[in-house]
Amino acid sequence: xxxxxxxxxxxxxxxxxxxxxxxxxxxxxxxxxxxxxxxxxxxxxxxxxxxxxxxxxxxxxxxxxxxxxxxxxxxxxxxxxxxxxxxxxxxxxxxxxxxxxxxxxxxxxxxxxxxxxxxxxxxxxxxxxxx
Length: 131
Known about the structure:
This protein has helices at residues 11-20, 27-37, 47-55, 62-75, 86-95, 102-110, 122-130. It is an all-alpha fold.
């Protein structure tokens, strides 16, 4: 989602990413999402702020939060799979405009792969997003 790789997501990058994934966001909606989640006030989302956006706030029930997290998780898995693989991660990053090598994706997965099986389960993904 971070098209220019500056470590932050702008409203425009968020809008483009959602549109790529099939969810149409207006400029105003993207700006509002960033404003609501922008804790440090810089007008951009860093990793923690983005994770909070995906996680949601306490207004949602635990079940709703888990459903939202599962929706995000499913964006990164290949059809018929139940985990994020280096290949599926690379595919999604390419859709979002990011160019990563297979080795890059493997390193990203290893950072949160608690059982060292080379893939991310839903639980590992959820833990990553809550950090």
